[in-house]
Amino acid sequence: MKYRTRTFYTEAQKSEMWDRWQRGESLSSIGRSFGRASSSIFPQLARTGGIRPPARVRSRSALTLREREEISRGLAANLSLRAIAHDLARAPSTISREVRRNGGREAYRAADSDIRAWNCATRPKACKLSFNERLCRLIARKLRLKWSPQQIAGWLRRQHPDEESHRVSHETIYRSLYVQTRGVLKKELQDCLRSSRAMRRSRHATQKGLKLRKIKDAVPISERPPEIEDRAVPGHWEGDLIVGANNSYIATLVERQSRFVMLAKVGNKDTASVIAALIKQARKLPHELYRSLTWDRGSEMTDHARFTMATKIDVYFCDPQSPWQRGTNENTNRLLRQYFPRGIDMSTHSQARLSAIARQLNERPRKTLQYQTPAEKFGQCVAATR
Fold it and tell me: What pLDDT does residue 180 have?
């Protein structure tokens, strides 16, 4: 029977591995750089959930190897522990404990004692959440409502500006989820995150762009008025389709200034179905709050002229292969993947269900709005039009 040989990495290799992972390289790419399979890289990163462990440093008050060697020489010369402590400018109790826990006067060895002290110092530091069960339960409840760790942290700062014990950073929440040795937040809460990955991925990781097509008589985004670009005026929207299994689709619309979301059930991707759904959604709002729509160059908007004629809403199109020009909608679609994972049939969701999901998303605080909710921000726009 042939056994697989175990792969070992040096500390320098592990450091390089973490550097590459934090730069956004894939497991396969990292494996190739070491001439190894990606399966040997995953266990190294997964131990701490893809979060780089902090570099270990000795406490300034800890005994050094040089001091331990002085202790060893003093014991060999039959000096008293108090005399050794005096020479090292240390407390006698410190020297006494050091010798006692490492075999006594006869068995004490400086190198072995130093290694043992370093190994004993690996116990993890207690997490802030481990001391605050009430805060821990609140965070778990918000995670189940699909709030992101950053939204939770921002909301807590807004709710408790002067109470440090009631606040926690988003990084602490992520570490409590992915580094299970902390024993604070349960592992199943990872499923509540937008990306239910086994490890936390670097923010530098690349994402594939969308394949966009040519649209006849499309008004390019470069001709969009500047007040739309700087989000100074409400009523300008970005839109797209979310794709599901069995050729099922949902139209997503997000208002640029408030990040307010609307979802529309679409029977098919053909331009007639999509345009009809968009016209129906547009008629739910006053013209002051729906002045323009920015879309990509998908074939579903071939009949954009009919939409403009029916609603008096201008349509602008992104440049080919430039989804970042519709960044508000791209980010919103990523949030919606919490509710609509890839591979599910979108046609099973009724319009009432889609509206309920949009309402829940609109009631979540957003960092870009100083942790106001899109519903609050959009409500202010509605009030201003009356």
Answer: 61
